Amino acid sequence: VIGAAVLNLQISTRQIEKQHGILKSKVNRVLRANKFHPYHI
């Protein structure tokens, strides 16, 4: 999840959700735990 966000700063949480097959809430949780803000990736 973090790798996808770092490689493509324009990617959305929904796109990450579809690529990795995990829930959007879990994507948001992982991003927040690593100091990312879903509206700033």
UniProtKB/TrEMBL annotation:
Protein name per UniProt: Transposase
Taxonomic lineage from the root: Eukaryota, Metazoa, Ecdysozoa, Arthropoda, Hexapoda
